[in-house]
Amino acid sequence: MPRVKKIEKKDEKKPRKKMTPIQTVRGMKDVLPPEQTLWDHVINESRKMCQNFGFGKIETPVVEFSDLFERGVGELTDIVEKEMFVFETRGEEKVALRPEGTAGIVRSYIENGMSKWSQPVKLYYEGPMFRYDRPQTGRYRQFHQFGFEVFGDPCPAVDAQIIYLAWKICQKIGLKNITIQINSIGCKECRSSYKNVLTDYYEMKINKLCTDCKRRLLKNPLRLLDCKEEKCMQVASSAPQIIDSLCTGCHDHFKNVLEFLDELELPYVLNSSLVRGLDYYTKTVFEVWASDLENGARQLSLGGGGRYDNLVQSLGGEPTPAVGYSFGIERVVEQLVNAKINIDMRMKKDVFLVQLGDKARKKILRLFDNLIDANISVGESVGRGSIKSQLRIANRYSSKLALIIGQKEALDNTVIIRDMESGMQEVVTLEDAVEEVKRRLS
Ligand SMILES: [Zn+2]
Ligand SMILES: [Zn+2]
């Protein structure tokens, strides 16, 4: 390719300029190794708990047709109106980076014929979500969620089970001062009568509302209840409550959910202004709140969920009841950091390798390989010279044993096994080393 060559030559003649380093895109964030330990802790405990509750993992693409969210999450929601990363592909498809997890999973449930599987279908997921939100501390345009969904079971016990699982995960992660905020927003029927009551109320107060709320009032009055504008919050505080408008079916469902929660002794709070920012919910909605003791006990929502009995059908599937929950991993990690919750962040390694001199270093590499093959976790610091600095690193890994090869051992094909707790040392042949380590670890 002569053209390319020419350009290269031309570039070479230019004086070298210092390149401006490229930075992360606004609202995006790197997660570096020290923080990863907390992430791993949160994700591992959540995964384990979901598996204990019989959930299987699902992964759906980050990119979906933007229609999916317009129809699923709702055109009048903040997410779809203002916050979606929408773009056209080279093939002129209108797509979006997913702003939340549920719509994609419902799409997958329908597309893969999961209604033919034995019900209920229980799925959990984790991964990045994208919202073109105003970046502020602790909130990013790419953030991560962990969530779980149950399809095909209308029973209030399942709502309670989802809430219980959300609660158990908080316990396992080590979060303190957690409450469950819960409400019912009814079904299509009783919600439409509530919407009338609510519209009447808000029309009398229309001058006290923000522009967004004025606009939304006719199409979706429910959203006015969770507007974050100070003046709208004041109007919302004395608005009629949906509980009083629930039909018998929805009322009984909610009562049953609360009875199950009582049975499980979960600390819930009835919160009539909780409507969640998404259109697809029916009946039970809930959020998990943490009191942020550092900031004057401010309440912080870590995640939310609820029942969405119409979503599968409205996205083209069979009528299928469903309920789910998701939490923000960044939020939970931040909470762990703020609350100074102690998580053992040391990387544990069963054995640590120490060497002195080039010959020993070569033997150590071979020994490292044999130990890894025997499924023993190994720490090393082959780049370092002094035994003292290597043993210091061994302590950081809280290894039970150190295997030391000095100049003499390298010549004799032996290795010193040192018990890090007692300090007792023993010399064995290199050949026997792996077996001896296994024996001492078991
Ligand atoms: Zn109802
Ligand atoms: Zn408002």
Folded structure, characterized:
The chain is built from 16 helices and 16 strands. The protein is elongated and about 90 Å long. The strands form three sheets. An eight-stranded mixed sheet has the order 1-5-6-11-10-9-7-8. It has a five-stranded mixed sheet with strand order 13-12-14-15-16, with helices on both faces. With 442 residues, the chain is an alpha+beta fold. A hairpin with a 5-residue loop joins strand 15 and strand 16. Helix content is 40%, strand content 21%. Helix 2 runs antiparallel to helix 6, helix 2 (33-52) packs across helix 12 and helix 6 runs parallel beside helix 10. The model has no long low-confidence stretch (mean pLDDT 89). The site of one zinc ion (ZN) has 7 residues, from helix 8.
